From TrEMBL:
<protein>
    <submittedName>
        <fullName>BRAMP protein</fullName>
    </submittedName>
</protein>
<dbReference type="InterPro" id="IPR005025">
    <property type="entry name" value="FMN_Rdtase-like_dom"/>
</dbReference>
<dbReference type="InterPro" id="IPR029039">
    <property type="entry name" value="Flavoprotein-like_sf"/>
</dbReference>
<dbReference type="Pfam" id="PF03358">
    <property type="entry name" value="FMN_red"/>
</dbReference>
<feature type="domain" description="NADPH-dependent FMN reductase-like">
    <location>
        <begin position="7"/>
        <end position="151"/>
    </location>
</feature>
Amino acid sequence: MQTLKALFINTSLKSSKDPSHTEGFINDVQVHYNQLGVESEIVRLADYDVAYGVQEDMGEGDEWPKVFEKVMAADIVIIGTPLWLGEKSSLATQTIERLYGSSSVTNDKGQSVFYNKVGGVAITGNEDGAKHAAASVLYALSHIGFVIPPNVDAYWVGEAGPGASYMDAGRENEFTKAAIQRLAYNTYHLAGMLKNNPIPNEGNTL
């Protein structure tokens, strides 16, 4: 089987000059991908000047096309997001909006260009909102053509109120470690299946 490629889009509100608990979480998923022979890359969206809108390219200065090129090269796309007020980050929303801007583009079979790509979500934060954010992200990915395997909503949240974050207190959480493993393995298995047996275009062309 050809080597699978995974792209993590880290939608932390912090640029790469600052540490990100979401990126620490992503790194723990990468441990499994490295063992499985999956090539992976992390894009910190805050490092790019991404314009607002729902077009493929919003014109001069818009750096989303650079990110989208990486999406198109990937077999697996995982959106990583922190939680703010129980919601996914604004950059996670922007990522989905910009992906949606290409949802009418087709592959050589007339399907959405996102067909046969596998999606997942990685979430960190204090307090609650993980399942709500996961439902939002995974529905959006599925709606535009990504395939969503089972159990690909890996997350960690801390106790109510201010407190420690993932890299301080979450890495030894057994529930989260198991969720990270399921995310890695289920995206790997399904991406491999689709690589060898793509979804037929009968009944699903745009």
